[in-house]
Every structure is written in C-alpha cells, then in structure tokens.
C-alpha cells in the first residue's frame, strides 16, 4: 500500500470502501488491528491509527472486549461525506471558473449533459 499517503489513511480508506460497497455491512465486525497489521505487514500501531480515524468519525464503534464494528448509518454517513467532498473539490472550483468565463449554471448543466 504505497501511494504517497500515510499508511494509516490508506487503511481507513480501504475500510471505508468496504463499508460503501457493502462487503463490510453495518453491524458487522471490522478487521482487528492485529489482522490489518498482519495482512498489510505493518506495525499494529499504524493499523490502530487508521481504525481510530474511523472511530472518531463514527464509522466504526468499539465494543469493549469484543472488537470494532461498523456503526449503523455508516454507509450513508460516508456517502454524504463523499458528496460534500466532491462538491468542495470539483463543483465549487468548476462553477467559479464557469462564472469567470461567463457561463451560466444552465450552460454548465448543458455541457455536463453533452459529456455524460
């Protein structure tokens, strides 16, 4: 898992992807820190840091003595976060550029439809 981003972020994103695609269902036990560390051949502290990112965002919940589980509503929470991120990173700059060159919202929608 080498792509320039910290390994713990990649671990968190991998789990997010599994939640979003349904391969890790809400209420299901998530991989443990040790399982992730063994699988990815990384330090357990690094895996724990990735898991803790998801716990902090309410995607995973800790059940003392049992493990980590996917929180109810986690998939929808992730979809909403991604929608917002998409809007912030792509739509806002696109609309700013459109205004800069004199395109209306309708023009932008028309261009999107042509390319879709």
Helix content: 55-70%
Spatial extent as radius of gyration: 19 Å
Largest sheet: 2 strands, antiparallel
Spatial strand arrangement across the major sheet: 1-2
Low-pLDDT ranges: none
Number of H- or I-type helical stretches: 5
Q: What structural category do the secondary elements indicate?
A: mainly alpha
Share of residues in strands = 5-15%
Q: What pattern of helices and strands is seen along the backbone?
A: HHHEEHH
Distance between the termini: 32 Å
Give the CA-based shape.
elongated
- Using DSSP, what is the number of strands? 2
On the 0 to 100 scale, the average pLDDT is 95
Protein name: GntR family transcriptional regulator
Keywords: DNA-binding, Transcription, Transcription regulation
Domain HTH gntR-type: 5-73
GO molecular function, one term: DNA binding
Short description:
It holds the Pfam family GntR. Residues 5-73 form the HTH gntR-type domain. 64% of the residues lie in helices and 7% in strands.
Please describe the structure with a list of short key phrases separated by commas or semicolons.
116 residues, mainly alpha, two-stranded antiparallel sheet, 5 helices, 7% strand, elongated
Can you tell me about this structure?
By secondary structure, the protein is mainly alpha-helical. The chain contains five helices and two strands. A hairpin with a 3-residue loop joins strand 1 and strand 2. Helix 1 (7-21) packs across helix 3 and helix 2 (33-40) crosses helix 3. This is GntR family transcriptional regulator. Pfam families: GntR. InterPro entries: Tscrpt_reg_HTH_GntR, WH-like_DNA-bd_sf, WH_DNA-bd_sf. One of its GO terms (molecular function) is DNA-binding transcription factor activity.
